[in-house]
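Hey, can you fold this one?
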Amino acid sequence: MCTKLITIGAVAVLALGVAACSDDDDDNDATPTPSVGDQAATLQSSVQALASLNVISAGTSGLTAAVDQVKSDAEALKTTASDAIAPDVEALQTAIDDATDTLSNIDSDASLSARIADVETALTGIATAAADLKGSIDTECS
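Sure. Predicted structure:
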């Protein structure tokens, strides 16, 4: 069953492509603001880490940490997101919150094995929301 879980995570990686939005910052800025493309790349990296996580060896705490990183990177993307993609970023955040809630109800690695279907459903929600976000980013940045 864990192989299936990792496969669901891989779907999320494929769903979140990085769009090359331009950065509107002045090249002379000392601290340029990250663009949507920059933030999407960071988010893609954390989603990729979640997808490649060995659930068996990482256990509940490793899975929770990976989901928390995706959440943090989605929050950062939201700060640079336009109104057009904000709803899809919020939908991703909701899916991440659902996954976090699912994981918070798992108190041991034995429970993780018993609740793998719930975790799989939660990660599928992240993959679906990431696919929707990719579509919005592609539209905005094309």
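Confidence is low (pLDDT under 50) at residues 1-15. Let me know if you want another pass with a different chain boundary.
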